[in-house]
Amino acid sequence: MKFILNIASPMRKLESYERFLFVGPHPDDIEIGAGSTAAKLVKLGKTVAFVVALDGRYGFENAPKGITPEALIEIRKKESLGSAAALGVEDVTFLGLSDGARYETKALHHALAKAIGDFGPDVVFAPDPSLISECHQDHLNVGEAVRQLAFFAPFADIMRQYEAKSAQVASIAYYYTAHPNTYVRTRGFIGVQLASIFDHHLSQFPKNSPAAQSLLRYLKLRSLFLGLRRGCLHAEGFRMLDRMRMHVVSEAGG
To answer: Which Pfam families does this one have (predicted)?
Structure first.
């Protein structure tokens, strides 16, 4: 039945929009989930900004031994800024909420609402909160908050309750999704994405570590596989919902 919806209301190409806000739960998620696309949009002359919701204080698995949460927060912030710059993004906002779901979801909603209202994006990127295999509560919370706020963003009276400005958000683009319906050709940008991760997020992916090697293989294979779906060499896939598809229309689900 989706073809009926696509005929009745074709969805705009993602790259046709002008302002893009990428929201990541942790300091490395945007780069892993959508780094090639972010780099391409910058190259196309679009306005791109990053919002990092949580401080990453519990990313200890591969971090230097004995490091304190406070020190790791500062390291990850510097890594995030360097990584964003490698993608061509200079506008990075840190909401500063604690990692590990140690925050009130109300505070998360308020902070994200303000970030969305201040930037005024056409498209907001976030993790897909409907991914049934996702076990990390931070990803689910951030994805769900963006889902609700992207829909409510144009309504000034509702956004005022979050002490935020309204914004004419036209679409959501979910990364980390099992059901992509939109593909961005990223040939020429996969290398930029990989460098943004493995040259900068060293507290999480030390050089030549098993974690780095596994993620590197995964990202290369994912890019090639999604490229095959799109009929090109490299691509990233997203589940995109425009305003027609955000509400009521069941054919947009799945």
So the answer is: PIG-L
Give the domains, in start order, of the chain with CATH numbers: 2-9+17-244 (3.40.50.10320)
pTM for the structure as a whole? 0.95
Amino acid at 129: P
Low-confidence ranges of the chain (pLDDT < 50): none
Q: How many CB atoms lie within 10 A of CB 247?
A: 9
